[in-house]
Amino acid sequence: MQGFSYEDMQQIDRAELGDQVPLELFRTIRLIGMYQGLPMGGRGTTLTIGRKIGESLPVRSLEELLALFRKLKIGIPSIVHRDDRIVRVAVEDCFCKGLPVLEEKLVCDLEGAIMEGALTRISGQRVTVKEIKCNVNGDDCCEYEIRFN
Ligand SMILES: [Zn+2]
């Protein structure tokens, strides 16, 4: 299929408005469009979208992936636990920070699916990523559990 690559996304030629859009636009697409607009909070679709994005990212390691998360201002990630099969990544300053708290809602599943897609491609094994904390849920940060099966 003919289509776009991540490198294409970096070709930006806007004379007046440049390469930035406001965070509220990203949030609107993510939360009003995807989370509220799709059936079941967009669960299955979000996973498909996130994995596809993750596979397309030009990264070769977990460290490069986390550096890109920061560069893209998704949030500031850091590894808070690591053993043979599990890595936990906490994200400070996540795009969701400051939204009203909605208990039992973890809304940053797309970002976890992006990690899943990237890490599955990099490692060549099945990787699953689960969001285990979210600012919107009232937690102190957003956090993901990455499981290397
Ligand atoms: Zn979150």
Can you put this structure into words, describing what you see?
The protein is built from five helices and four strands. The chain has helices spanning 6-9, 23-35, 43-56, 62-71, 109-123; strands at 76-82, 86-92, 127-133, 142-148. Strands 1-2-4-3 form a four-stranded antiparallel β-sheet, with helices on one face. Strand 1 (76-82) and strand 2 form a beta hairpin. The mean pLDDT is 96. Bound molecules: zinc ion. Zinc ion binds at residues 94, 96, 107-108, 134-136, 142.
Summarize this entry quickly:
The chain has 149 residues and is an alpha+beta fold.
Taken in chain order, the helices and strands follow as HHHHEEHEE
Q: How many separate domains?
A: 1
Number of helices: 5
Low-confidence stretches: none
Look at the structure and give the CATH class: Alpha Beta
**Could you give the order of strands across the largest sheet?**
1-2-4-3
Q: Estimate the global geometry from the Cα principal axes.
A: globular
Helix content: 25-40%
Q: How would you characterize the largest beta sheet? A: 4 strands, antiparallel
CATH topology: Muramoyl-pentapeptide Carboxypeptidase, domain 2
Name of the CATH superfamily: Trafficking protein particle complex subunit 3
Total count of strands? 4
N/C terminus separation:
31 Å
Give me the secondary-structure category: alpha+beta
